[in-house]
Each structure stands twice: as structure tokens, then as C-alpha cells.
Amino acid sequence: MKESLIPAPSEDRGRLSEPAPAVVLDGLTKSFPSRRGWLETIRHPRSTKYQEVLRGVSCTVRAGEFFGLLGPNGAGKTTLFKILATLVLPDAGTATVAGHDVVQDARAVRRVLSPVIADERSLYWRLSSRENLELYGSLQGLDRRAARVRAGELLEVVGLDDTGEKMVGSFSSGMKQRLLIARALIASPRVLLLDEPTRSLDPISARRFRAFLREEITGRQKCTVLLATHNAEEALELCDRVAVLNHGELLAAGTAQSIARDMGNDRYRLWTSDPGHPGIAALAGRGVVQAMTSHQSDAPGWTVIEMDVPGGLDRAAQVVAFLTEQGVPIARFEYAELSLADLIERVVEQRGTNRESVRMSGDGDA
User: Fold this and answer.
1) Distant-in-sequence contacts of 98-104, Cβ < 8 A, 24+ apart
2) Average per-residue pLDDT in the chain?
3) Among 95, 98, 188, 257, which is disulfide-ready with 112 (CB 3.0 to 4.6 Å)?
4) DSSP assignment, residue 163?
5) Using CA atoms, how far apart are residues 248 and 76, in angstroms rounded to an integer?
6) Which residues contact 242 (CB under 8 A, 6 or more apart)?
7) What angle, rounded to 10 degrees, do the helices at 129-139 and 173-184 form?
8) Is the pLDDT of residue 8 over 50?
9) Residue 106's pLDDT is what?
10) Residue 321: what pLDDT?
11) What values do phi and psi take at 271, rounded to 5?
């Protein structure tokens, strides 16, 4: 028989074609000594208490992904970034960046990862943007000519090539943020760490900056980006996936929409001109819909009713069909996305409830 010239599909070949993960965290743990008052220090000079900042954090960030770290202040986001940037050593667990261990191969990690320091004061305000980049390029080991060429390339990338000899001190906050990104790109990193990059920007500048990050940094530059943020718009606009941290624990990871579904978000909005219609009251009376609230919409004569509809999309479709049969005037009926704050709160509450249930179960077994 004549041998086929077309190779059969290979499972190994499919695996080899997949890009390697950009960042892998496995059981990452870190504690710091707790601050003590002077009286306690005098009474117990040799005792030291520790506060756990990261507790067994494990997750994987794909190459080319925009990955968001969400959580309240003190959740551990900054400590995690410092470990990835090789500025802090973990107490336990491992973290790798592009296959390099942050402890065993820190120098290689620093070649492929750049943290973007959000502090505008880290720039030299009395120098031009080009001079700033050339100076930083020389610190990265580039010769004068290579630093000049690289600075010109990056100024064009971030849209600052027309600033000429204008001093950085006269730049707007948005221009300074772009220059900080350009500085981080000097060494052609594969992974960028961004810590609240738009916190000092007005809403319009922030939206433009987010578009720049999405189109240029992950789109054209093909960088993997880890973003720590408290901004709902930022997380939903930019991030492919998000992880929720609280008190050092990773509580959930996935798309914001999938996490909301996992948290049991079945909230819907109904626009109607007859909020007192018996059909709506009948649904509430039978327990088909729950936790109804209402408020006037911007359109005169129309009321927005929010309600929980347990049972997923099938039950929501049944609710719409019933209201239509009953003659309820409906302008819109749509899924109500959780705000970022509500999403984090639900994740924290549900994880806390689950942990308490496990503890009580363990007490009973004992």
C-alpha cells in the first residue's frame, strides 16, 4: 500500500502548538512581621508575630493574555507583584515567568518581565521623553546608538514621537503614563505588571489609555499583562480573565461573566410602563421572582424593576412569556451585570460561608 504523504493528526503535535503559560503560581505563600507598638516591644522584645499576606495562591496566566487581579486593599496584590518582579522572596510555593523560577533564576525573570511603576516621580521631569528613554536604555546595557534607536521606536509606539524636546514635567498625566509604559518596554519584555495604571487619569484619558493598552501592548507588542485594579470599567474592558484575591487567598478565577454565573447571579431588569400590573405581582407571589426593587427610568412614564429569577435562562424565558401573555407592557428585559464591587463582595461572602460550613462539619465529625 502506498504510504500517505499527509501525516495523521497527532495529539502531541496539538500540544506542542499551544503556547507555554506566561506565569504559573503554585501554592505561593508569604508572611511579614506584624508591626508592634512600643509598649509591646518593650514587654516582649524577642517575640515576633507574623501576618500572612499570601496563602497558597495557585493560578496560570496564558501567554498574550490580559489578566486582572481584583480585591480590596490589603488583599495581597502588591506583594504578589513584588514576588513576580523578584523584589520579594516567597516563604513557600513557586512562581515561574516564561518558564523561569523567580527564586532560582531571578536574573532570567528580570529579562522577560517589567513592572510598570505608576509613580510619575520616577521619571526625570527636567529631561525630554527621548532623553528619559535613552538614559534608561543605557541602564539596560544598550550602547548610545542602540538606545537612541530604541527610544525613537518606543516613542512612536506610545504616541509621544511628536513631543520633541518638551520637558516631561510639562506632560499631562496620560502622557506620563504612556512614557512609563515606553520605559518598561525598553528591554522588550514578554510580561508587564501594571498596578492601577489609570488611577490619576480623568475618565476620558483613562478610556483612551485602556484602548492603547489593549490595541498596542497586547495587540501589536504581544505582551502578557497582569493588571491590579479597583476599577470596574478597567477590569471589564481590558481583562480576558480575572482573579479575586482577599486576605491573601485566591477565591475565584475566570472571566467576570463566568464568576458572576458561579456566584448565582440571576438578576434581571424589566422596563415597564405598568409596574403595578397583576401579572408582575403574581410572579412575586408564587416565588418565581424574588428580591424585586424598582425605580423610575430616565424615560418619562417607564419604571425599571430589578428581580432575581433563579433557574437560569430557561426560567427567564418563561417569565418573559408569562408577562407577555398577561399583557404587561415590556420595553426591555435584560440580564443585570454585577458591578465589580458586588462581584467581589459575593465571592468573598460565598467563600466565607463555604469555609464556615466546612469548619462546622469538621466540628461535628470530631
Assistant:
1) 98/20, 98/22, 98/190, 98/191, 99/20
2) 84
3) 98
4) -
5) 5
6) 67, 68, 69, 70, 235, 253, 254, 255, 256, 259
7) 30
8) no
9) 95
10) 94
11) -95, 120
Q: DSSP 3-state assignment of 72?
A: coil
Helix (H) or strand (E) holding 282: helix 278-285
pLDDT in tens, 316-348: 999 999 999 999 999 999 988 766 677 777 777
Cell numbers standing for residue 262 = 458561579
279-318: per-residue pLDDT in tens? 999 999 988 998 889 999 888 999 999 998 888 888 999 9
Count of beta carbons in the 10 Å neighbourhood of residue 255: 13
Question: E strands along 175-279, which residues?
Answer: 191-195, 224-228, 241-246, 249-254, 267-272
Q: Is pLDDT above 50 for 366?
A: no
Percent share of the chain, pLDDT over 90: 42
- Give kind and range of the element (H or E) at residue 203: helix 203-212
Asked if residues 281 and 274 have their Cβ atoms less than 8 Å apart, the reply is no
CATH topology of domain 266-335: Alpha-Beta Plaits (3.30.70)
Do residues 59 and 253 touch, judged by C-beta distance below 8 A? yes
- Average confidence (pLDDT) over 200-229: 85
Boundaries of every domain in the chain: 19-260, 266-335
Residue 172: which residues within 8 A CB-CB, separation 6 or more? 205
Residue 342 one-letter amino acid: D
